[in-house]
Structure formats: structure tokens, C-alpha cells
């Protein structure tokens, strides 16, 4: 029920302000007020009708929005950029009258599937490592990739001082004349530059990278820079992951 009390961090996340985990940090830092009073206790519960402010601004209770976006290369996965480079939300600022945020990130020079939403609770669940949501990439590599290199990725390699989970890999093409390989790789983690670093660890530089799929969602019917709303069945399935 809408009037039932919920944990403060969940109310903030559900409003699309940030993830539940980051909302907890805001609370303990004293940046959240409820009905004019600073709240630092993570166990505190309130209703959606209470006046909740983050950094002095009331949270907005926008209708939940779920978007599948084909991010082009040369676009920052963020809502703003201090260098004035294009960001993903530029594609929606004159269309979507709500604050939406990317779920996870794709590098500036990486294209492909990106989910944007104002559902902070779903964002938190999709990004949590325990849920192991598969992400499928296609990488264009310099050199003719060898099976033994991909076998290392299937057992995990050390990236950022941490061993990656086993990846699924498949060689799509090898071009001896151009010394180029195309490889599909499936991971479920989300470390910075993870796919590029994994291939670099086994001796190959990534020339081009595209994320083709997140769980059951793919880019069918979209070209670079296009987007669509998720349908109700897709939203329900995502929430069940």
C-alpha cells in the first residue's frame, strides 16, 4: 500500500534519485531531511507522503520509466559532463519529463545496449554482483586470437587486482589478411573497462567494442542513437531476475 511505511533509503531509490546503497551513504552523511528534520538512522521508516529532501531538494515521485537505448560511440554514460561532451541523457531531455539515470555504464568509445530508468530499486538489483545478470559483448581485436587465450578468460583472469568470474567466449571471425579477430564474450560483472582489460591480459587490444545484450534484452530493431520503452512483460521479467 502507498501509505505503508518503508525504509528511507528505499523511498529515495524508488524516486530515482540514486541507488539504495548510495542513498544509505546520503543518509549517514546527514544530507537527507524528512519533514524538516535531518535523519541519519538507516532503519528509519516513512511513507511516500512524508516530505523527503536530499541536499535541500524534495525528491520527485515520477512515474517509473524504463528505456532501452542503443548508445553510440563518443557519448558519456552520465547525466552531465564537466567537459561538455555529449551524455546519454541528451537524447531524452526534450522528450522525457523525468529524471532518468543509466543502469551501469558503457565506456565513451563503447557502443551498445544501455538501460535507463528512474527506478532506483531496480537499478540497485541489476547492478548487484549476486544477481549475475549476463552482458554480451562483441569485440574487434587486433591480431588473430588463439583458443588458448580464450580458455584463460573462461577460467578467469586478474583485472584490477581481482580475478574475474569465468566468461563465455566464441570466435566469430578471424581475418589473417587484416590481422583482425571478432569475438563474442559474455560476463556478468561490471568493473571499469573490464572487457578491454580482460583481452589485454591475454595479449589482445580491443579496437572496437559493442554490448549486444543484457540478460534477455537485445538491440533488435534499433540503430545507433535510437531507443524504445520497455514493454510491461520485459519490465516484469527484469524485476524477477
Task: Report what the structure shows.
With 241 residues, this protein is α+β, with helices and mostly antiparallel strands. It folds into three domains: 6-58, RNA-binding S4 domain (Structural Genomics Hypothetical 15.5 Kd Protein In mrcA-pckA Intergenic Region, Chain A, Roll); 66-129 and 217-240, Pseudouridine synthase I, catalytic domain, N-terminal subdomain (Alpha-Beta Plaits, 2-Layer Sandwich); 134-214, Alpha-L RNA-binding motif (Alpha-Beta Plaits, 2-Layer Sandwich). The protein contains six helices and 17 strands. The protein has helices spanning 8-14, 20-28, 120-127, 147-155, 194-201, 232-240, and strands at residues 6-7, 32-34, 37-38, 45-46, 52-54, 57-58, 66-71, 101-102, 110-117, 135-142, 158-159, 162-163, 168-175, 180-187, 206-214, 217-218, 227-229. The strands form four sheets. Strands 7, 8, 9, 10, 13, 14, 15, 16 and 17 form a nine-stranded mixed sheet that branches. It is elongated and about 70 Å long. The mean pLDDT is 91. Keywords: Isomerase, RNA-binding. Belongs to the pseudouridine synthase RsuA family. One of its GO terms (molecular function) is rRNA pseudouridine synthase activity. One of its GO terms (biological process) is enzyme-directed rRNA pseudouridine synthesis.
